[in-house]
Amino acid sequence: MASRLVLVIGDLFIPDRAAFKKLLTPGKIGQVLCLGNLTDKETYEFLRQLAPDLQIVKGNFDVDAPNLALSRVVTHGSLRIGFTHGHTIIPPGDADSLLISARHMDVDVLLWGGTHKFEAYELEGKFFVNPGSATGAFSTGWLPDAEQPTPSFCLMDVQGDVLVLYVYQLKSDANGVESVGVEKVSFRKTSNPPAAGAASP
Fold this sequence. Notes:
201 residues, mainly beta, five-stranded mixed sheet, 2 helices, globular
């Protein structure tokens, strides 16, 4: 199966602050997984024109979209990928709670939002990704008081049982000059994930 790029984006809130728009062009992305909190029709239309396949889940501020699901599952290669906004994860962003959700959804990869901060890690054979807020929208209680959210989004390239994640973050230097940094993180599905507490060989 040929790979296709999948855009993972969420917690937009402030569409006029979307510094990444020039990086996201139609024809290069095969699917968009939006983790909620679009909050306006213009952002929806922008995402709709990026890719032929737009999948959205409901965020806690998507009050005008009562019919959106709270979570969904898609399949790419041999990977089942679940996604949710994250406001239903209690406590928010908790690794054990996310692992329970991933098991409940029967997924290899769980994408979640809500904290407005990028994270990616493996736990018990599963891969967890929070793309952060694409616009660097404020956060209530998720970040330390002095810390401002860093605008970010992710692109996934899935081939078979391998997912390559490209993380785009808008960073500012001491003089306020902005630049986009890109990091790469890889995940390979294992056939038999290690049991909790199992010792490594």
